[in-house]
Amino acid sequence: MKRIIIIGLIGLLVVSSFVFVSCSKKENIIKIGAVLPLTGDAAQAGVNTRLGIDLKVEEINNSGGIDGKILQIIYEDCQGDPKLAVSSIQKLISIDKVSAVIDNSLSNVTLAMAPIANENEVVLLATGASSPKISDAGDFIFRIWNSDVLEGDVVAEYAYKELSLKKIALMIINNDYGLGLQKVFKNKFEGIGGTIITREMFSPGDKDFKNQITKLLQNNFEAIYLVGYPTECSGVIKQLKNFGYKGIIVGTIVMADPIVQKAVEETGYDCYYPIPKQPDQNDPSVANFMNTFNEKYDQEPPMLADVGYDAIDIITNALIDSKGKEDGILIKEFFYKMPEYNGASGTFKFDKNGDVKKPIIVIK
Amino acid sequence: MPLIQIFLNVLIHSSNYVLIGISIALLYQTTRFLNFSIAAIYTSGSYFVFLFLRIFNFSLFLSIIFSIFFCVLIGFLIELFLFKKIRKKKSSYLISVLTSFGVYIILQNLISLIFGDSTKSIRSGAIKEGINIFGARITPVQIIIIITSIIITIFLLLFLKKTKIGKAMKAVANDAELANISGISSDKVISISFAIGSGLAGLAGILVALDVDMTPTMGMNALMMGVVAMIIGGVNSILGIVCGALLLSLAQNLGVWYFSSQWQDAIAFVVLLIFLIFRPQGFFGKKFGKANI
User: Fold this and answer.
1) Concatenated DSSP letters for B244-275?
2) Cβ contacts (< 8 Å) between A259 and chain B: which residues?
3) Is residue B214 a contact partner of residue B208, using CB atoms and an 8 Å limit?
4) pLDDT (tens place) for every residue of chain B, 293 residues total
5) What residue numbers bound the domain in which A317 lies?
6) Which residues fall within 8 angstroms of residue B107, CB to CB, at 6 or more apart?
7) Hey, is the C-beta of A230 within 8 angstroms of any chain B C-beta?
8) CB B264 within 8 Å of CB B252
9) ipTM score for this prediction
10) Strand B136-138 and strand B131-133: pairing?
11) Is residue B197 a part of any domain in this protein?
12) Strands, E, within chain A: which ranges?
């Protein structure tokens, strides 16, 4: 008898949970998924983005929602782990039936989720991922952050025009990242009249670059274009000093890393590198974001809050355009044909790969 | 071709390969398996120095002495509590190697956990240009690395040849059971070889870190190069290992020069393969055979 009661109770629980799930798709709510690292190593980035997202959602719902429907964000904590992210997006799409998914600044997480988003025809909008591979990740994958390759272009032009460098040697990390940037830099630099004198490569994790530097320094050039991660870059810079190199170093955004900055400081090299340009604070959209953020949270917007805010805004625009119809294909099409958008993180427009070109500046 | 610079590069690199090569060979001779935990002890050496130097504010010299002491201690303890037990159970070669690999993984992760994965530095003072020798550059630290390695190698050579313990090590290397029968405690000898090998590995790690900084994963690559140098040179000959290390770093340097820099490590293993096929006992090595009774 006892057993029958237990089985009956479990059965009731199962049935009611089905009913609950199927009822949860209410007519007056539009759901958007957000897969963010809210705990773990990358948590700060996720938490910051969440602040921006919440702010925009509150604004939209206070002003009547989208076509009378209320916007709701369903957060999933991926902890920066691609495996968790994959199960999160599967849950968001199949159970929560979200109309779009936002994710954060980890390229491997974006790339892991991309096939699922494409297959289910749901737009995946990355707010901070920078890997060049994301350009080819599929039609439904967008990002509002520059691809790494863009900076190669900007730096090559800066080196030739602003620094008047004509002869450059390459010191490149031997992986997708290094080779991708090398290609862009070389094409641009040689295209506008510069010469690439020579190239040496190193592997990720290398610490000793004596052999490469010995060979590199047998050539005559004015600057070295250095592409690698902080560990290798700081090593190369220090060892160049040991070898008595006296020229200029041109780098990537990696140079902004504290470890590399320390090496540059200790060696005293002239080092030029690109960083994303801060949005103009006099721009009304940017100023509005800064003010409302300050009012709600009583602090200045941290890094990546602005892209979270913009992500919700453009998805909302797409939903308004489709008259509130939650169709991934319509959102995708809106994104591709969207005119230049002026938001909290600056102005941007998607190209055919779902990439944006935000302004980059080169600093010393 | 900058001959002098290449010569200096070869000296700097090979002095490191020699130390780690001898360290691995000492353990291999007495225990007859490739001990991966040496790679972790190599890394520990430099991180202990970092700990004493940067956190306890000891002097560099004192930090190095303490660090080597702790490396010896770790080597001694893992032998006492792990490898000795495994040996007593007459475990297979594979189990011994896997155990040592486990020790490596644990220690390396521990270092990552405590110190983080980013580069740490134990050099003191500003980064300076190297001394100019006919257009080639060498830093004072690199000169110290070379001299230290030469002194240690000569010292070990004499130690193994002249002292009683050195001779006992040779006996155990030839046949542990036979050595036991003739009154040599093979356990004691193996403990000593663990202690010396660990100290050497720690020192090698410290010297490299002084030159090019450190990361928690630096040990594995060093171990690989040490193993290649040891196999090229012959397991039971220190002079052979010296030659092996010189040949290995020369091949790597010339490889970068004539081919391309991404082939550096591949070239090391090509040299290894050539030796394994044509001269598996190494330069001066005699063919290892168990003594027949």
Assistant:
1) HHHHHHHHHHHHHHHS-GGGHHHHHHHHHHHH
2) 118-119
3) yes
4) 788 888 888 999 999 999 999 999 888 888 888 899 999 999 999 999 999 998 888 888 999 999 999 999 999 999 989 988 888 888 888 888 999 999 999 998 899 888 877 788 888 777 878 888 887 888 888 899 999 999 999 999 898 888 888 888 888 887 778 888 888 888 888 898 999 999 999 999 999 998 888 888 889 889 999 999 988 888 878 888 999 999 999 988 888 888 877 788 888 888 888 888 888 777 776 655 544 34
5) 10-147+280-358
6) B37, B40, B41, B43, B44, B74
7) yes
8) yes
9) 0.82
10) antiparallel
11) yes
12) 29-36, 70-77, 100-103, 123-126, 141-143, 167-173, 195-202, 223-227, 248-250, 271-276, 341-343, 346-348, 360-363
Q: 251-310 in A: which are within 8 Å (CB) of B? A: 259, 263, 266-267
Query: Which residues are B136's β-sheet partners?
Result: B133
The verdict on A155 and A119 lying in the same domain is no
| Domain end residue (candidates: A256, A275, A294) | A275
Q: Give the position of tokens 């949860």.
A: A24
Count structural domains, chain B: 1
Chain B residue with CA closest to A171: the answer is: B261
Asked if B24 and B197 count as a contact pair (C-beta separation under 8 A), the reply is: yes
What H or E segment, with its residue span, contains residue A54?
helix A43-62
**Same-domain status, A239 and A153:** yes
CA distance A171 to chain B (A): 10
Quote the tokens at residue B237: 């000959």
* Helix H or strand E encompassing B60: helix B60-78
Q: What is the pTM of this model?
A: 0.73
Three-state SS at A109: helix
Does residue B22 sit within a domain?
A: yes
Same domain, A98 and A161: no
Q: Which residue of B has its CA nearest to A264?
A: B127
* Total CB pairs under 8 A between chain A and B: 82
Judgement on whether residues A224 and A292 belong to the same structural domain of the protein: no
Total domains, chain A: 2
Domain membership flag for residue B128: no
Chain A residues lying within 8 Å of B130, measured CB to CB: 242-244
Q: Residue B13: which domain range?
A: 3-117+133-278
